[in-house]
Amino acid sequence: MDDERGPESYIARVTGSTNVQIGSHNTQHNVTVDAGTLPPPQHGDGTGRAPHNLPAQSAVFEGRDITELSGLLDDARAGVVVGQAALHGLGGIGKSELANQYARARLDHYRLVWWITAESRESVTLGLTALTRRLHPMPTAADAREWALGWLQSHPGWLLILDNVEDLADIAGLLGVVSGSGHLLVTTRRDLGARWRRLGLHALRLEVLDRAASVRVLTDLTGLDDPGGAGLLADALGDLPLGLQQASAYVSQHEGMTFADYARLLAEEFDRTADAAGEGEGDPGGRTVAAVWTVTMAAIARRSPLAVAVMEVLAWFGADELPERVLTPLSGDPGEVTDALALLASYSMVGRRAGSVTTHRLVQAVTRGAATTAGRSDAIRESAIRLLAEAAPDDPVDDVTAWPLWAALTPHVQAVGERVPGGQDLPEMLGLREMVATYLQYQGNLSMAVVLHQRVVSDSERRLGAGHPDTLAARGNLATCYMQAGRTDEALALHEQVVADSYRALGADHADVLAAGNNLAACYLQADRAGEAVPLLEEVVTESDRLLGADHPDTLTARGNLAAAYLRQGRVDEAITLVEQVAADFERRLGAGHPDTLAARGNLAGFQAQAGRTGAVAFHERVVADSERLLGADHPDTLTARNNLAAAHLRKKHIAEAISIAERVTADSERLLGPGHPVALTAREHLAQAFWADGRLSEALRAEEETVEHRRRFFGPDDPATLAACEHLALSYWRAERRDDAIVLKEQIVQSHRRLVGDHHPATLAARADLAGCYWMVSRREDAVALQERVVADRRFLRDDTGRGSFDASVILWQMRAAMDPSLTHRPGGLNSPGRETTG
User: Fold this and answer.
1) pLDDT tier, 837 (very low <50, low <70, confident <90, very high otherwise)
2) Average pLDDT estimate for 490-499
3) CA 139, chain centre distance (Å)
4) Mean pLDDT, the chain, as a whole number?
5) 795 near 809, Cβ under 8 Å?
6) Is 198 helix (H, G, I), strand (E, B) or coil?
7) 747: number of CA atoms within 13 Å, CB side?
C-alpha cells in the first residue's frame, strides 16, 4: 500500500531527536530520524516471516551448524557490540551459503532480512537503495540510501547481510550507524584478526568440510551411490564446498559419468574441468573453482606483487604445512616475505600457524594453471625446487635435530617432483629426491623409500647415463634399501650388477668400487652366505688399506663387516679380536661420540653376548649410556642399543629386566619413529620373546599379532620379513593350542609363497609340507594326504642332486596312507611319524 505523504516525508527531518552521523567520515549527513513517521515493511509472505531478498538456497546443506553463528549474533560479552558477526574464509568455502541458510532458518525471528552484495562502497549504496524501495518508493537514489539508514537505526529486529566484503572501509561507516538496533552479518574472504573485534564483530572462520559431509554432498546432489568414489573425489577437491557443488553439477549433466571419471578429468584436464560450471548451476554468479579466486588475486596484486610471487611458488608445493623460512629467499628483506604472507592470509588464500603456511590444493591448481597459460610455469617451478634445495639440511640420517625439518619438507619435495615433466629434472631435484628417499629409508618408511630410490635411479640413468658414478651410487642405495626392506634376492642381484658396472666404469682402484663390494658382502651376510662374504670382504679390506688407508671410515666399516662374517662362520675369537680393534680405531679416528664409534662398540657387545662372554650385559649398558649422553635418548642408534641390551638380558635369562627395557623401547620407538620402523618392530619382537619366557602367554601372542599387523601394513603381506613374522605367530598359536588360527595363518603363508615364487619353489613346497602336517594333527587326514601328494609330485619335479627331498616327502606320504589303510605293506623308508608336531 502506497503512503500518501509527499516526498519530503521520506527525508529524515528534525523532530527533536538527537543528531546522528550517517555515512562515512568523508560523506557525512547530519540528519535526525523520527521513528514514528517511518513506515514499516509493506510486504510479507502471510506467514509471519520477515520480508527478504535472500538468494536461492542449496537443497543440500552439510557439514555446517547455524547454532554457532546464532550464538555469536546473540553474544553479549563485554567489549563486543551485540548482533554483529563476520564469517571469513577462503573463496568457495561456503560463507554465503551458511549466512543464507541461517537467515532462512530464522526468518520468523526478524522484522526484516536484507541481503546486500558488499564488494564495493557503491554496491553497498545500491543495496541500501534497494532496501528503501522495498520498504517504500523513493524519488532519488541519494535520498534512498539515507532513508534506509534512518529506518535501520529506528526499527529493531532486522537482519542485514553484507555479502563478500572486500574492503572494510566500504562498510566501516555503516557498522557504526546501525550497530545495536538489529543483527548484522558480514561474509568476507578477509581474515583481519583483531580489526574485526575493534569494529564490534565476532569473527568466525570457516574451514573446509569434513570428509563425511563432503561425501554426503556429492552423493545427495548426484544421486550416485558410491561413497568410496565420492571420498576419493572429495580428497581431490580438498573438501571445498564450491568444488563439490561444481563437480556434482558436472557429473549429473553427463550421463554415465562416475566420481572416478570426474577425478580423472580433474587430473588430466584441470583447466577445462575447473572452468565448467554446468547448466543451471545454482552458485550465485555461476562461479567456478577456476574463476572464484581470480578476483581475489587481482586485488592482492594491486597491493603486493611479491605476494603474488609467493602464491605462485606455493602452488608447486604440497598442501601440507610448509615452514615459512623456505620462502625467505624470495626477497632480500625477510620482513617483506612475512608481510606478503600476512596479506595472502588476510584474503584467506593461505593459512598460517606456528611458522608454517598451508594452501588449499584447488587454489594451488588454479594458480599453476594461470602460470602455465602465461608461460611462466617452468621458471616458477624451478624457483620452488631451488628454495627447497636451499632449505634442506645436509644429513638426513644422523642429524636428529634436522628430522623435524625433513619431515616438513618431504611432502613438498614429493609434490614438486610429481609436477616435474619428464626430462626436465634439475640437478637439485635429483639431490632432493635422493635425500628424501634416504630420510624415509632410515625412518623406517621403506616402501616409500624404495619407490623414491627407484625414481632417482631412473632419472639418473636418463640424465647422466647408466655408467655415471652418481647413477651407480643411486643404484647401490636402492639395493641397500632393498636389503633393509627384506627384499634380499633383489638386493643381491642389484648389488652384484653395481659391482660389475662400477669395476668396468671406474676401474679396480676406485673407492666407489670398494664401497660397492662392501655392500655386496653385507648383502651376502644377510642372505646367510657367509662363505661368499668372507673372501670378498678380505679383498675389500686389503684394497681399502692400500688405497684409502687403514684408518679411513670405509676401511674400518669393511673390517667390521668382516668381523661379522667371521662370527657367522663360527670364528668367534677372530671376530671379537677384529671388532675390538675396529671399535678402538673408530674412537681414535672419529672420536668417542661419533655414531660409527658407538655402532662399532655396540657390535662388539653383541658379539660378546652371542659368544656367551661374561660381562656382555655390562658392556651393552655402557653403550646405551654413552649413546644417550652423546646422541640423545631419541636417536635411532640409541634405541637400537637399548634393543640390544634387552636381547642380552634375554640371553642371560634376566626376564624382568628384558621386559622392562623392551616395553620402554617399544613405546619410545613407536612414538618417535612409527610402529613400522625396524627398530620398533624389533623391540616388539623382543618383548614377545620376553613375555613367552615369563609365561605371559596372552601378552606374548598380542605382541606377535601386532608385529604381524604392522609388517603387513607397512611392508605388505608378501614381504619376506612379514612371512617370517607370520611363521613365528603360527608357531605360537600352535603352542598355545590355537590350532585353527595356526592353520589359517599357514594357509595364507602358502598363498603368499605361491604368489612370490610359484608352485614349484622349495619355499612353497616347505610351507605346503608344514601345512599338510598341521592338517594331519587336527585329523583333517584327507586334506593332509592330498596336500602331501602335491608336495611329493612337485619335489620330484624339482629333484635335487641327492633326491633326498623327494624321498623324505614320499616316506611321509606313505606313513599317512599306512595310518589310514593298515593293509599297505610296502614302505619306502623310515622317518618320523607324520604325527609329530611339524610346527613346533
Assistant:
1) very low
2) 95
3) 62
4) 81
5) yes
6) helix
7) 10
124 within 8 A of 170, measured Cβ to Cβ? yes
Q: Is the pLDDT of residue 390 over 90?
A: yes
Q: Where are the alpha helices (DSSP H) in 76-140?
A: 95-105, 121-135
CB burial of residue 545 (10 Å; 0-12, 13-18, 19+): middle
C-alpha cell read off for 70: 546464532
**CB-based contact 208:181 (threshold 8 Å):** no
3-state secondary structure (DSSP) of residue 63: coil
Record the cell numbers describing residue 437, joined without a space: 628417499
Whether the CA torsion 221, 222, 226, 231 is positive or negative: it is negative
Question: Is residue 45 over pLDDT 60?
Answer: no
- Compute the distance between CA of residue 211 and CA of residue 219 in angstroms, rounded to an integer: 12
What pLDDT digit, counting tens, does each position of 648-674 carry? 999 889 999 999 999 999 999 998 888
- Residues 174 and 149: beta-carbon distance below 8 Å: yes
C-alpha separations of 750 from 19, 302, 364, 727, 759 in Å: 91, 67, 47, 10, 9
Residues 6+ apart with CB under 8 A from 18: 32
- Name the nearest CA neighbour of 292 among 365, 203, 394: 365
Instruction: Say yes or no to pLDDT of 738 above 90.
Output: yes
Contacts (Cβ under 8 Å, ≥6 apart) of 88? 95, 187, 188, 189, 190, 191, 192, 196, 203, 204, 205, 206, 348
Tally of CA atoms within 13 A in the half-sphere of 459 that contains its CB: 24
Within 10 angstroms of residue 592's Cβ, the number of other Cβ atoms is 13
Q: Is residue 683 predicted with pLDDT exceeding 80?
A: yes
Q: What are phi and psi of 6, to 5 degrees?
A: -75, 175
444-457 per-position pLDDT tens digit: 778 889 999 999 99
Q: Nearest-CA neighbor of 564 among 615, 613, 599, 616? A: 599
Give the gyration radius of the chain's Cα atoms.
37
d(CA 652, CA 620): 13
**Distance separating alpha carbons of residues 104 and 109, to the nearest angstrom:** 10
Within 10 angstroms of residue 2's Cβ, the number of other Cβ atoms is 8
> Looking at residue 72, what is its pLDDT?
77
Q: Phi and psi for 212 in degrees, rounded to 5?
A: -60, -40
DSSP SS3 for 301: helix
pTM reported for the whole predicted model: 0.68
The answer to whether 371 and 380 are in contact (CB under 8 A) is yes
Contacts of 427 (CB under 8 A, 6+ apart): none
Of 737, 678, 685, nearest to 706 by C-alpha is 685
For 103-129, what is each residue's pLDDT tens digit?
888 888 888 888 888 888 888 888 888
pLDDT at res. 60: 66
407: left (phi over 0), alpha (psi -120 to 50) or beta: alpha
Residue 297's closest CA among 333, 328, 336, 340? 340
- The C-alpha cell at 542 is 686389503
Task: State the CB neighbour count (10 A cutoff) for residue 771.
Answer: 25
> 8: which 3 cell numbers?
519530503
Residue 175: which residues within 8 A CB-CB, separation 6 or more?
84, 184, 199, 200, 201
Distance CA 606, CA 598 (A): 12
The 10s digit of each residue's pLDDT in 393-435 is 988 987 778 888 999 999 999 999 888 776 567 888 999 999 9
Mean pLDDT to the nearest integer, 829-837: 41
Distances (CA, A) of 581 to 325, 575, 597, 611: 45, 10, 11, 17
Q: Which of 345-359, 405-419, 542-556 has the lowest mean pLDDT?
A: 345-359
State how far the Cα of 728 lies from the Cα of 705, in Å rounded to an integer.
10
Residue 209 has pLDDT above 80, yes or no: yes
- Contact (Cβ atoms closer than 8 angstroms) between residue 450 and residue 474: no
Report pLDDT for 337: 95
Which residue is associated with the grid cell 658392556? 619
